[in-house]
Predict the 3D structure of the following.
Amino acid sequence: MSARDAILAEIRKNRPAGDHPLPEVPLFTPLVGDDLVAEFGERLKRMGGRIAEPGADDVFAGVRERLDGAKVVASAVPELAGNRDLKAVARPRDVDDVDVAVVRAVFGIAETGSVLFTQDQLVVNAVAYLAQHLVVLLDPADILPNVQAAYRRPEFGQAAYAVLHTGPSATADIEGVLIHGAQGVRSLTVVLQPRATA
Amino acid sequence: MSEELHPREREGVVNPVVRAPDDESERGQDGRRLDHAEGTSKPIKAPAQREPQPRGAKIRGDRPIDQGEAAERFLAAPLHAAAHDERLWDLRRKRDNAAHGIPEWEELRELASQIKQHTLSNLDAYLEQFEAAAKANGVHVHWARDGADHNRIVLGILRDHGAKTLVKSKSMLTEECGFRHFMEGEGVEIIETDLGERIQQLDNEEPSHVVVPAAHKTRFDVAEVFARTLGTDPDNDDAHYLAESQRETTRPYILNADAGLTGCNFAVAETGTVVTCTNEGNADLSGNVPKLQIHSIGIEKLIPCVEHLGVFLRILARSALGSPITQYTSHFRGPRAGTEMHYVLVDNGRAARLGMEAFWTSLKCIRCGACMNTCPVYRRSGGLSYGATYAGPIGLIIDPTFNKRKYSTLPFSSTMNGSCTNVCPVKINIHEQIFAWRKVLAEEHQIPMLKQGMMKAAGAVLSRPAAYRAAIGAADSALKVLPRFAVYNPLNTWGKKREMPDAPRQSFHAWYKENRMKDGAK
């Protein structure tokens, strides 16, 4: 008997007694107020992320210093050119020298301050971790109230890779001292910028 | 300005270097102190003194682990014992705050429990659904009967690709399988990428906690390990310096690895998705950089639908860290273009446990570690004192399913205070299962003579609720008799230095009988 069949057979033999119906999950009232943008920003900051308001004539005014100080900028958004074409990257490891990556989030979650990306937004998935800093464009209209609402979105059943980022890479494995930039990005800044209308 | 703004000086760090002036780790954009991820809710004030790290339980083949002996050595290192206790209690308090912030917390626990129980009692169907969905997504699916099977399968995949190096994120399942040790013997280089797990790998120790693997080590211990293995400055014990050193030395392995492996927090049957929750982003690096990605999945990780993630994600990080979510929640569903993706579904005793009437619900566990953080025994003895993959309360009820003789004494390492059961986000009746294990092990003569004698006496009292209540009612004498059997005994050294709390004048039951029942009669 294959391992598969042996495991399934043992599971069937050992099925626990009793009735264990799948419960209906009720729609919970979001824990956040009506101002989703403010709630999102507050939660994101508690998770170590930053919020930057777009300037009047420069979307990236709030992160301009970081962008200007960067040698390699990889942009996956039309709002910024950058100097590393992600579509031309042969191997994921080649984006290790990226100082700042700029990507757009599919949506944000006010309850947690999270943003969602799939392989379509990232182009090279690894850039969201190998880059030193991550700048995220998020349309304020794309902020969902809570995690439950997020998991009703279709992306999770469609994308090969979908990931919620909530602030930067972090660790506190040594004596509980919080450190940003454990293995991934050292900072994550969200710029609240509406999507360009097509 | 105030001392508040100069935490480095206050902490008395030996070498206050490394941290850049604009470092944002300690304070957020709004200037408030941050405590997300595993961060403490207040600055650590661990004394700048060195003390040799107490090591874990002595392993002698199948002979029963002497947790008490290892706990005694842990307590004999007061700096370590105090720091460990404080650190994990802080996590527990953060968890309380997070849980209290959600009005539907109890409802979420009940839902999570029911979803898991439903899935486990239909596990065959959900595994088949998961397998079919994964295959349709282009994922290769393997089944492993036990740990050895898992290791052989992964080795086979690596050999097929000529892979010699593998980066991995933290996975308790691979610890269970002895994966690293096996691969060492096969000439495959395994690199742990989680900071805590990497510390443990470099020090040749098992993780002591499911969420914070090196919680039992001080920064001085880490400085010593890194100086010895990574060539860092032995006198620099700054956590930032140490973490940065690990990042810089691990990055080349990540870039050059032939394969990446992650564990699995949730496996969604509906979509064939593997979900991982990390703070460092190392699962995403393991899954997104190498050309070959492998996900090791315990078969009990299944949940039916994506929608159910909306329940589990809300309780996992809050229970584990006191944060609303981990920094990264990653959903791996299909391979990247030009790469291969493999799932290894591992049984390793789980299907057998499903048939154990008193213990099958331990399979609901989502490995948050809340029961460990709240356990006075765990906090005072350190995870390595259990000499098993799983420490703390959840370990007491899981470990004996792997080896009844070796872990026969572990169910006695509990005060039976029930706190583990109260914090469990999936409502496992942990302390009741601990007691049930004591009975089973006594019946099967797995318990040393001394403890068997205790069991007999304790069993006689505990098996009859009325007698139990009568004993409790006679408070002083009961505390002398009952807890010495059920709670403390000479082998449980973590009970030393602790005095029994004064017995309440009236037990709850007696109070209830006297007041509520009287009220009801009015």
